[in-house]
Amino acid sequence: MNPEPDTNTLALDRTVLANERTYAAWIRTGLASLVTGLGIARFLVDSMPLWSIRAIAAMLLIFSAASFFLAAWRYEHLHVGMAHLDVRMIPVGMVKLSSLVLIACSLIALVGLWYITPSL
After folding, report:
1. Cβ proximity of 99 and 71 under 8 Å
2. What are the start-end ranges of the E strands in 1-120?
3. pLDDT, tens digit (0-9, with 9 covering 90-100), for 55-89
4. Is 15 or 112 the better-scoring residue by pLDDT?
5. Segments of 27-101 assigned E as strands
6. N- or C-end of the chain: fewer Cβ atoms within 10 A?
7. What distance in Å separates the CA atoms of residue 56 and residue 81, rounded to the nearest whole number?
8. Neighbours of 112 (CB within 10 A)
9. Is 34 exposed, middle or buried (0-12, 13-18, 19+ CB in 10 A)?
10. Cα separation of 8 and 32, whole Å?
11. Distance (Å) of CA 52 to CA 34, 57, 78, 81
């Protein structure tokens, strides 16, 4: 006979999984913003004024960096609240490192924006 699972353990597991889904959603949002910003800078050069292309792409790239930062911040915020519990979670260091790498990619893309779009 299998004992029934503890409802508190199941609730904690659901909370951890929800936190990981939220982290993934922020990362997806940031990646979509990063790709959209680079796509606008690369493919709309002939159809819009250069200043507007750079402005829109720069805003999207800054938004992507902010999304990556907020993803790590929100994940860590809940992780700290559950640190005293015996729950298996993705280590905060790994989450911070992956978010920092993605933030660096966004900022490098922001600098590279002026090399993607031709100057007039």
Report:
1. yes
2. none
3. 999 999 999 999 999 999 988 887 666 666 666 77
4. 112
5. none
6. N
7. 37
8. 13
9. buried
10. 36
11. 17, 8, 39, 43
